Task: structure prediction
Amino acid sequence: MSGTGSIKEAGVPSARSRALAVLRVRSRALAVGLLPAAFAVVLVAARMTGRLSADPWPVVTLVVCVVAAVVLLVGGVFAAVVLRASPAVTPTVPLSEAAAPDLYRLVRDLADRMDVPPPSAIALTPDCDSWLEDRTHAAHRRSAISAGPESEQGAAPVLVIGSPFLWWMRVAELRAVLAPVVAGTGPSAHPDIADARGFVRGLDAAVDVGNRRGLGWIGAPARLLLRLCRTDATEMERGVAAAASERAQGVDYGLRIVAQEQVGLAYAGWDRLLTRVALPAWRMGRWPAHLDAGVVSALTELSRRDRLAEGFTSRLGERPACDLLEQPGAVDEATSLLAARLFHGGPAEPGPDWSPVDWAAYPEEVVDRKWRAEAARLHAALDALAVPAGRPAGPAGPAAAPTGLAGSGSAGPGALPGGTSAAQASQGSPSPSAAAGPATIEATGSARPAVDGFAGPTLERVLGYLTDPAGAGAASEALAGRLSGDLAREERAAGAAQPSAGKARGADAVPLFPLQPPRSGRDLLADHVTAMVCCAAVDSAGAAPGLDWLDGPVLLIGGDRRSDLAPRVLCLVEDGNPEPLRDWLADLGVRPEKPVRLV
Result:
């Protein structure tokens, strides 16, 4: 079976027959657009031969001609939009043949074995997926999206490969996984399928144009045509996939079953690496420069924890697929920057406020800075709520009495220090006394007088404020609301500053694929209290920031990770009970009355 010949049936409707059904929708739409013109031609011809000379045919002919002209004009504009609108192109890192000659040879060998056209180019995406993408649309050439051979008329699709596959998979595994993808170039070369796909992509782009520019008369008919051909287009793609899978069965079929297990493992490790390791760095204006190398460490740790290490150790001795690249480090850095842009909305280029970070420097430059920034935000929120610093205990004395709760019986229900109610605080409204408080995070607590030799922001201040004998949780609600408001203002300010810088650097400041929904106020409060505890442990008990490949920032005590802090913080935040956390602090020798460094 040749690359442009017939397509095999594999228990599903023929892809070509479905493509013809899609093209029939286009033909019918064209016929509807030409119908008024056909009536006008008939009437004009009849008038010219004298068959329709009596009234009211002159008026009818004029009206039909006007209607036909309007319909032709509107239809022509609509067709021009469909033909010229640029279909969406996935942001990728282009990989030239000079940068990966071995990978190009592997892909061409696959295409030769399956008797299909080789992909016109290869690109990488920071995701655990691989597909073919057509970039031959004329709009792509006009906008210089692609200046290579992949944009030429009739060129084969571009092979897009998930970058984590190259670092985690072995060469033989990658070959087996790519075989059914590369086999899809055969059906893609079929004229009817290519034409149908181009029509659907054009309609999709026209809908986008109509939405962005408020042109309902463009978007509405495009959406209607998409609905009419949606089922056939879906079945066409299923038929193409089935034909490609059947064609690829003769290439490394046995190994493909094993390789698919690695695909599932890569999905799990990549997701945790992005959400728990990369995301904290992105929020601080730093981006890990070697995410793909990190996924190997994350997946190795995942296999160890799941007691799969013995089965995976032997495969790690085989040649990794990233050896097919000439400069793996440079490619990894480019895909890591693209990942930050896609999943977080970071700038497209590095800058003073958007710099890379290596894994070796991650604990100090990300984890420690993250903790101290959150601790500073926590104390700034306490300042806004007019919470006093309190009187810390002496080195050998008992803990200071809580000073963050209302001390006067004259306050009404839900009242907080400084006369601020929980409702006001949860809305982010500072009390009158808070307006005179420190204006910057750096000044938090620095203006307070020394008490028993201690001054500045302390963990004791946080514990005292959140301790609630009644368990009502009003203090937690107020502080969580304040933190949510402060963080929202910071993000709005950062978003307002990004467009000008993004315009200068050509960025897209909006994440195309956000990783996580907005965090709740309680989650934010727990994160900030945890950060404050970690800062106190680092400053007074010899602890250190660390990196766990699956869980992100962690606290190290004597080189060992402490994973028992979270439930104690939740007990304080949700129940107002500080005793489990105080016992934990005493066991490690952490002094909550000692000020912590916030910068």
